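Bumping my old thread because nobody answered last time. Still need a sequence for this structure:
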């Protein structure tokens, strides 16, 4: 406590300051005291400034109280809505069959726990990154998934959930590992758009090295999970016959760096790799064999394929033998074009002129089946445009990648995903709309005495006129 002497001293100094400055402000308390300070050398605010500071403090406190009250009101209103919604559900006659998860989801949406973004009919959101736009939940999400990944969000989540155990990355002391959904979305986006690693990795916020690793990881995961049900190679046994068709397509690529370029140079003067597929009339891919250079003949490719090996071992068709007219017995067969040799399990058209009506009718049915094959490759390459255009690829992983997109092709067919026919058209350099090149090479016509007579006469007459001139 302050003594009597100290109390009298403070009182005398206060009276002196009041008499000199007025209002409690002292300008000349004692000799050496600074102007604008009290006797102890501390600055003293005027009444106006004190009023302003007090008003600001009161405003801040009042604003905090208002926001706190508003927060309490929102929380109370949210709880009231949730209780009201639950009560209405419980009062319903079929409340017993109502799932608890559905009730909680409805309650969350009704209380505003799961806010929705701007609807697609009002404005389409753009963040600058395709990977970020996929995770925005609004009315345009499903359309965006179909545009960028060629599938609905539901199908994407099913594939991701099935492949997640094979794509989990180990958590370390460094940065956070990539999530399975991000890995699958990136690889699907690359196959669907055909963009380079430099462009699409930045769209998903991952590095180029990580993008290269996702090719191996995603293909391995899909082949492990869907190896049995994705490609029904063994079901050729049941489907073998007029509903199965053997055909091949060329996958165009840049000149391989570590392989002889002349081996991959096909007769259309482009570098390519042959993909040999067995398809049915439901547009499903039953078997695929990829990897031989584009210059390899169809006969050579079929002889070296696993399909031919299984046919020779008798494990390709395991159905019951069928007796055809004329006493011919067969366990199964596949339709092919004239690029393949006729064999016990590959049936090719007759071709030629002056055909018998039965032969002409058979060739007509073959042409119909060929149209279905072109539809398969149109849908397959139209959706996954990386294999439609010329691109730089790793020859070691190309067969696994194409097999993976064939499995995805079957999955999307089973899910009922529609195909946009506009993907089969493109604009050339001058803006003219034309069909895309599906890489289907027509077999070269065979030269025979019956079919080449008119051509031979035309050639001789042309040479005769050329020599005379």
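Sorry it took so long. Here it is:
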């Amino acid at each position: 406590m302050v003594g009597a002497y100290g109390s009298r001293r403070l009182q005398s100094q206060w009276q002196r300051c009041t008499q000199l400055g007025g209002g409690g402000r002292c300008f000349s308390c004692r000799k050496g005291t600074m102007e604008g300070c009290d006797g102890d050398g501390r600055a003293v605010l005027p009444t106006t400034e004190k009023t302003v500071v007090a008003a600001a403090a009161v405003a801040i406190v009042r604003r905090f109280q208002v926001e706190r009250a508003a927060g309490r009101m929102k929380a109370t209103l949210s709880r009231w809505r949730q209780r009201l919604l639950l009560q209405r559900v419980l009062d319903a006659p079929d409340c017993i069959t109502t799932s608890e998860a559905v009730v909680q989801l409805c309650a969350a949406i009704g209380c505003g726990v799961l806010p929705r973004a701007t609807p697609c009919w009002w404005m389409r959101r753009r963040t600058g990154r395709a990977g970020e736009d996929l995770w925005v939940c609004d009315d345009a999400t499903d359309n965006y998934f179909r545009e960028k990944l060629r599938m609905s969000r539901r199908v994407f989540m099913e594939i991701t959930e099935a492949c997640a155990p094979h794509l989990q990355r180990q958590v370390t002391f460094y940065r956070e590992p990539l999530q399975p959904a991000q890995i699958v979305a990136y690889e699907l986006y690359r196959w669907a758009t055909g963009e380079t690693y430099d462009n699409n990795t930045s769209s998903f916020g991952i590095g180029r090295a990580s993008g290269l690793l996702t090719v191996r990881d995603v293909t391995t995961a899909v082949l492990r999970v869907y190896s049995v049900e994705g490609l029904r190679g063994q079901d050729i046994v049941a489907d073998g016959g007029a509903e199965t068709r053997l055909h091949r397509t060329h996958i165009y690529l840049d000149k391989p760096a570590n392989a002889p370029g002349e081996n991959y140079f096909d007769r259309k003067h482009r570098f390519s790799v042959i993909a040999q597929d067995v398809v049915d009339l439901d547009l499903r891919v039953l078997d695929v064999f990829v990897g031989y250079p584009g210059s390899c003949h169809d006969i050579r490719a079929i002889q070296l394929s696993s399909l031919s090996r299984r046919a020779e071992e008798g494990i390709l068709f395991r159905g019951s033998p069928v007796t055809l007219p004329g006493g011919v017995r067969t366990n199964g067969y596949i339709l092919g074009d004239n690029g393949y040799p006729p064999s016990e399990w590959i049936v090719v058209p007759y071709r030629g002129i002056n055909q018998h009506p039965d032969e002409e009718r058979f060739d007509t049915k073959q042409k119909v089946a060929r149209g279905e094959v072109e539809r398969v490759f149109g849908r397959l390459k139209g959706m996954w445009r990386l294999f439609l255009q010329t691109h730089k690829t790793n020859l070691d992983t190309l067969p696994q990648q194409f097999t993976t997109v064939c499995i995805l092709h079957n999955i999307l067919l089973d899910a009922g995903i529609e195909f946009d026919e506009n993907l089969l058209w493109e604009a050339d350099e001058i803006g003219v709309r034309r069909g895309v090149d599906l890489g289907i090479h027509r077999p070269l016509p065979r030269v025979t005495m019956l079919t080449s007579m008119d051509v031979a006469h035309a050639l001789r007459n042309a040479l005769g006129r050329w020599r005379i001139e």
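Residues 32 and 41 are 10 Å apart (CA to CA). Let me know if any region looks off to you.
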